[in-house]
Amino acid sequence: MRAGTPPLRREWQRFTPAQRLARFTVYLLLVAAVVASIRTVDIIPEFLWDAPQQMQDLLVRMWPPDYAHYPESVHAALMETLHMATLGTVMAIVLAVPLGLLAAHNVTPSHTVNYLAKLVLVASRSVNSLVWALLFIAVFGPGPLAGTLAIAFRSVGFVGKLFGEAVEEAQPGPIEALTASGAPVMSRLIFGYWPQVKPAFWAIALLRWDINVRESAVLGLVGAGGIGVALNTAMNLFQWPRVATVLLAIFVVVIIAEIAVTWARRRII
User: Fold this and answer.
1) pLDDT band at 5 (very low <50, low <70, confident <90, very high)
2) pTM score, two decimals?
């Protein structure tokens, strides 16, 4: 450095120019997406401004709930909803566990089989439960069977994906020891993989059952059985106190299911 030349000063910058440009581009795209979405959604200003008064009027008509209506129709539909969620979850687990094993590369080394299994799991998750319900209603007719199958086929992708990922994260040491001792495939799965993935398996199963209780409550709106049928009937007949009873029953069941899942996780996992 020459005499009399001031020392070079480095100024700290949080982001480089390229990073600032990238952040600005992301923000601009987000704003553009929001504006495009608002323009696409058909919003009627008259209904928007009148919404608070309409909601207040609806709540007034729903109060007090018609609790006398619960024993005659709501209770049976509520139990049917729980049965649909439980049976659909069990069916999903039975179908998802083999698919999860086929999708795990450390259990099934064939990339072709892995991709095919993952394709089935993605196809299951990509179709909403209401769409599955409509498809099965067209095949089996309206009723709880269509709702149960819709819940099962919707849940296969969720359970299979998470279970397959848990299997792939298993430590290879116990499996290598079993393989070296000449253990067959089933023994490696039971004594090598299962002890490692058991907590994740039960967590996935309980979480999916909790989700299915919520989803099964609305399948009846398309005729797939459950308490949604009672809700749809009461709404079509403008029986708002009965609608309040159904909504309150759904809320209570969801809270109880949440408590049950939390308790089961503490006991099992």
Assistant:
1) low
2) 0.77
